[in-house]
Amino acid sequence: MAAREESQGDDDVTVPVLEARGVSLGYDGRTVLDGLDLSIGAGTVTTLVGANGCGKSTLLKAFGRLLTPSSGSVLLEGRPVGQLRSRAVARRLAILPQNPVAPAGTSVRDLVMRGRNPHQSWARPWTPGDDAVVERVLADTGLAEVADRAVTELSGGQRQRAWIALVLAQEAPTLLLDEPTTFLDLAHQLDVLRLVRRVNRTSGTTVVMVLHDLGLAARYSDRLVVIGEGGVLADGDPADVLEPTMLERAFGLRARVIPDPVTGTPLVLPEADEEPAPPAETGHHPLDQAG
């Protein structure tokens, strides 16, 4: 999706797809983010990283209009997201929250079909084109063979892929993914992130996601944003962001950063434990004695 442009005199100003302006957010009476500013450009893959509880998922919810800031504003394509109709937002923005729950008895295909709801109206009923989108997404996510099974009968990894398929079926130009690799083994984590990157590269889809694995975040992102201390601690190319001083500040982690031997992207290696392991016992146990 190309970002809208507004002319101001002789200059063209590109409007961010998403923007947080002075946003403060919290829960349970606690402020997590305070006066945060962040903009997301069109066609990029941006990953939010940071320690548990720093506000990554909270910010993603605000971008997706699931949480209202206590102060500041969130803009979608230059317009306050809170002022837009729900259907209009759903056509522009798809969000995968943490731990979604499907109604009992819902099949995988039925769940994925719900992704087409924002495109339906009395003037536009379900079409063969909608069927084609659903079948393509089921195939892309490796779910075609289990499409008629209930979501609740699937393994954790299959269930997570079903929710990702729902989001992809929505065909929104911007995707918000909160820990999309949850419950997946490493092979399926790679499958999902490759799929996300392929959608970004082939369709120009803007992606904002939360990941915990810093190596995978660096490998599959154009940009990393480190959240912490109530705001943005670092923002930029993964190679610039993932450096030892920042890792210790954001995560309390002493680590080395080396180039990934496969991709050349940053690979974080925690330093060895400070306390040496106790020496192994070398004596013989009494039961080992013959007699």
UniProtKB/TrEMBL annotation:
<keyword id="KW-0472">Membrane</keyword>
<dbReference type="GO" id="GO:0006826">
    <property type="term" value="P:iron ion transport"/>
</dbReference>
<dbReference type="Pfam" id="PF00005">
    <property type="entry name" value="ABC_tran"/>
</dbReference>
<feature type="compositionally biased region" description="Basic and acidic residues">
    <location>
        <begin position="282"/>
        <end position="291"/>
    </location>
</feature>
<keyword id="KW-1003">Cell membrane</keyword>
<feature type="region of interest" description="Disordered">
    <location>
        <begin position="269"/>
        <end position="291"/>
    </location>
</feature>
<keyword id="KW-0410">Iron transport</keyword>
<dbReference type="InterPro" id="IPR003593">
    <property type="entry name" value="AAA+_ATPase"/>
</dbReference>
<dbReference type="InterPro" id="IPR017871">
    <property type="entry name" value="ABC_transporter-like_CS"/>
</dbReference>
<keyword id="KW-0408">Iron</keyword>
<dbReference type="InterPro" id="IPR003439">
    <property type="entry name" value="ABC_transporter-like_ATP-bd"/>
</dbReference>
<feature type="domain" description="ABC transporter">
    <location>
        <begin position="18"/>
        <end position="254"/>
    </location>
</feature>
<keyword id="KW-0813">Transport</keyword>
<keyword id="KW-0547">Nucleotide-binding</keyword>
<protein>
    <submittedName>
        <fullName>Cobalamin/Fe3+-siderophore ABC transporter ATP-binding protein</fullName>
    </submittedName>
</protein>
<dbReference type="InterPro" id="IPR027417">
    <property type="entry name" value="P-loop_NTPase"/>
</dbReference>
<keyword id="KW-0406">Ion transport</keyword>
<dbReference type="GO" id="GO:0005524">
    <property type="term" value="F:ATP binding"/>
</dbReference>
<dbReference type="GO" id="GO:0005886">
    <property type="term" value="C:plasma membrane"/>
</dbReference>
<dbReference type="InterPro" id="IPR051535">
    <property type="entry name" value="Siderophore_ABC-ATPase"/>
</dbReference>
<keyword id="KW-0067">ATP-binding</keyword>
<dbReference type="GO" id="GO:0016887">
    <property type="term" value="F:ATP hydrolysis activity"/>
</dbReference>
